[in-house]
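Below is a filled-in request sheet from our internal design queue. Each sheet records the structural input a requester submitted and the sequence that came back. We keep these sheets so that new team members can see what a complete request looks like end to end.

REQUESTER: design group, bay 2
PRIORITY: normal
MODE: inverse folding
CHAIN LENGTH: 371
BACKBONE (tokenized):
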């Protein structure tokens, strides 16, 4: 089986499995306990937080651990909006955000009366900083923009938007799920007040992530104990945190080499597709880790099934909307709700562990399936 669905999740590194197993076997204390078992566990949590903070070049105090990017996104959007609704009632985002952002915004609109503006892509599929900035009003209290789209790899202009918001009262949330561990991610450089990420996108375990936040007040989503400086109640997922820190250390150790390898894989893939009738759903600058291809007149569900039977694991879009009959909201935003392009696309997503031989095998299986 060849795995080319890394935007959905990545295989866990053996080194990560080892440190997690060691913690499960040896560090079972509750980090909130004051005895030696608890202190040892608390030290593991503290060390993991320092690793994440050092990678982001922020202070550990500004990192809150979560169950993943979805919770981190919801905490930033819902927690901040509810805590600051007296300052304004308007939030801005884009139509191509991850469902965890769009659904959190819908909740704020439907249940709490917030006004939401979602910026639509241009005809060429791009979203400019200017189009986002034009949507911002004096009463806007939060702007949320993903760094890279999970379905197409499209890079959004987070630095430009962040620079504008340095002179506006609205806070800036960046969903960095698809770039963390792949490119340098430093919230202060791009003017992000909130930044979300999830461990399982960079070869860490599922069920753990983090939210960077500055010195901002926001309501917790989970109430109970005083863990995470009262920002998120619940006994810490110690082995998950240690695994996430280990995975991020590995990713950062060879960041440039990994990126260059994946860039070469993408180039090789495109070269091998010569002669096929296809087009790319690529809208401006994109991360090489995600390639969205489409084959005119070919139903992507049938193509996906054929490739799966041939031992190739890819997808047609976000794993968080898998199993639904709804077309991609990302491509719908670009092409329209009833466009034929919505049923023609497949997503190939690489990791640094994929090989040129796997790309060749995928293209062979693709050509056979298209026949």
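RETURNED SEQUENCE:
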């Amino acid at each position: 089986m060849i795995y080319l669905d890394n935007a959905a999740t990545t295989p866990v590194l053996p080194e990560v499995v080892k440190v997690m197993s060691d913690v499960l076997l040896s560090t079972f204390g509750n980090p909130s306990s004051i005895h030696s078992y608890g202190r040892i566990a608390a030290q593991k949590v503290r060390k993991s937080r320092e690793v994440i903070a050092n990678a982001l070049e922020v202070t550990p105090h500004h990192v809150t651990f979560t169950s993943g990017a979805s919770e981190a996104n919801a905490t930033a959007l819902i927690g901040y909006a509810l805590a600051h609704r007296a300052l304004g009632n308007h939030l801005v985002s884009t139509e191509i955000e991850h469902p965890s952002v769009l659904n959190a915004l819908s909740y704020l609109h439907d249940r709490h009366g917030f006004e939401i503006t979602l910026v639509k892509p241009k005809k060429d599929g791009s979203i400019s900083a200017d189009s986002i900035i034009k949507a911002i009003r004096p009463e806007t209290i939060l702007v949320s923009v993903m760094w890279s789209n999970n379905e197409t790899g499209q890079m959004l202009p987070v630095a430009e938007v962040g620079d504008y918001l340095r002179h506006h009262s609205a806070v800036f949330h960046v969903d960095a799920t698809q770039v963390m561990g792949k490119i340098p991610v430093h919230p202060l450089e791009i003017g992000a007040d909130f930044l979300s990420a999830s461990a399982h996108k960079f070869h860490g375990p599922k069920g753990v992530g983090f939210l960077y936040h500055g010195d901002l007040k926001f309501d917790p989503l989970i109430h109970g104990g005083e863990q995470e400086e009262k920002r998120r109640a619940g006994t810490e997922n110690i082995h998950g945190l240690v695994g996430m820190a280990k995975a991020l250390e590995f990713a950062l150790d060879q960041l440039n080499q990994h990126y260059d390898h994946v860039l070469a894989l993408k180039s090789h893939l495109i070269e091998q597709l010569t002669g096929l009738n296809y087009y790319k759903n690529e809208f401006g600058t994109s991360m090489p880790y995600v390639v969205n291809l489409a084959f005119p007149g070919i139903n992507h569900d049938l193509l996906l099934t054929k490739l799966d039977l041939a031992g190739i694991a890819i997808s047609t879009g976000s794993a968080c909307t898998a199993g639904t009959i709804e077309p991609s909201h990302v491509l719908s935003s670009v092409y329209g709700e009833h466009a034929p392009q919505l049923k023609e696309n497949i997503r190939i997503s690489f990791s640094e562990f994929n090989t040129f031989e796997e790309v060749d095998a995928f293209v062979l299986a693709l050509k056979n399936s298209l026949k």
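SHEET NOTES:
- The chain is about 40% helix and 15% strand.
- The two ends are 21 Å apart (CA to CA).
FILED BY: M.R.
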